[in-house]
């Protein structure tokens, strides 16, 4: 499978201390709110691999959890554990395995998932320094089997690999010899919605610099501090604007409240902005129908999801593409062709069709239930590959944390 990446930045030339503890990447589970229904038996269908990752989120198990490799059927293939810290975790996983009648292998590794996730974030913060030194990072993220952060460069050289391993430690990072030469574009390019607005709308703006910016809005969110406030979200790289929707009426959706992306006015590597408060409800557009999110999902590799950008595609005039496979759930960091760094992203890929195009940025990614109109929120679209076959999405859990909001689970508002 192709892997695309953009130029990364350069790090200062001092050796860095590797953290001995850190907080694992957030995997917040949204609660079902008023007006939503969980399909009968839905709680029993939780994959074994998801229950293991839920255990790993618990603070008492983070020092012993080294990561996991999932099987295509939702099972757990390999559980990676840190020797000397594994006892409680193994006992808890055995309990879940017994309930699920599931088998798996246990492999010991030197570093916890929390530690390599922390290092992944540290590298992201040092992208500009590395670029200044001529080292163009393209993609990086944790590899549980190696118990390291694996780094791909836009142009590999032994000298660059040595610099990275000297800075972070050869037992903490490895550098792929395969360069990532394909450009990843930040997507920023249904159409006639009326208030109260749904997610998945085409949104557009006419900035003072001239021209038109076209993106897609994602899920409707509610403020944690002020739950009566409804917020639309889209990609931070789309820029701060007064956002319109409906090609005919040019309704004002709202103005950017906060752009959280470093390089667009924010101080994080999370590609999101809040718009509003807005007149919107907890539904998202599909093709000719709408869907209601009722929980959030961190999909595993091989899971199928939907990508609901507003750019029309061959065979999909609305832009919605479903049954798209998750190639790399991440969370990864990557740099795009505009020089921005994005973290907490996953990758979806389809070799046979376009799944993401330029104006899809900010559009919702979700997984549909087998029947009905309920969906599990996965994230919002962040970037696309040159030919539209790769799509990168920012995970919804980190969006909730960064923006201090939570999903609106009420289809009526």
Describe this entry's structure for a reader:
It is built from six helices and 24 strands. The protein is α+β, with helices and mostly antiparallel strands and 413 residues long. The chain has three domains: 42-61 and 63-109; 113-182; 184-413, Thrombin, subunit H (Beta Barrel). It has an eight-stranded antiparallel β-sheet. It has a six-stranded antiparallel barrel with strand order 18-19-20-23-22-21. α1 (48-57) runs antiparallel to α2. The chain is globular, with a radius of gyration of 21 Å.
Brief descriptors of the model:
alpha+beta, 6-stranded antiparallel beta barrel, 8-stranded antiparallel sheet, 3 domains, Thrombin, subunit H, 6 helices, 413 residues, single chain
What's the mean pLDDT score?
Answer: 83
Beta percentage is 25-35%
How would you classify the helix and strand content by structural class? alpha+beta
**How many distinct beta strands?**
24
- Percent helix, as a range, is 10-25%
In CATH, the topology of the largest domain is named Thrombin, subunit H
Low-confidence stretches: 1-45
What is the oligomer described by this structure? single chain
Radius of gyration: 21 Å
Question: Shape from CA axes?
Answer: globular
Q: How many DSSP helices?
A: 6
What is the rounded distance between the termini? Answer: 41 Å
